[in-house]
């Protein structure tokens, strides 16, 4: 596992197509912008785990 530090409005590049930018930090919450090609879905872990289990999600 790699742990990185990053200031607000700074980005981390994961590969040629994925960029994670820190937008804000407020006590216990971090806001991120995750830029990906349209073919790469992005989910919070708990949502992804429900999808993998086949649980129905209410939207």
TrEMBL record:
List UniProt keywords, sorted A-Z.
Answer: Activator, Cytoplasm, RNA-binding, Translation regulation
**InterPro entries linked to this entry:** CsrA, CsrA_sf
Where does the source fall among the domains of life? Bacteria
Mention any one GO cellular component term assigned to this protein in its UniProt record: cytosol
Listed GO MF terms? mRNA 5'-UTR binding
User: Please, one GO biological process term?
Assistant: negative regulation of translational initiation
Q: In its keyword annotation, does this UniProt entry include Cytoplasm? A: yes
This chain's protein is named Carbon storage regulator
- Look up and give the organism this protein is from: Pseudomonas chlororaphis
């Amino acid at each position: 596992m790699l742990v990185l530090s990053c200031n607000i409005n700074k980005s981390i590049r994961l590969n040629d197509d994925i960029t994670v930018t820190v937008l804000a930090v407020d006590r216990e919450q971090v806001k991120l912008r995750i830029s990906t090609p349209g073919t790469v879905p992005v989910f919070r872990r708990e949502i992804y785990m429900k999808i993998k289990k086949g649980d129905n999600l209410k939207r």
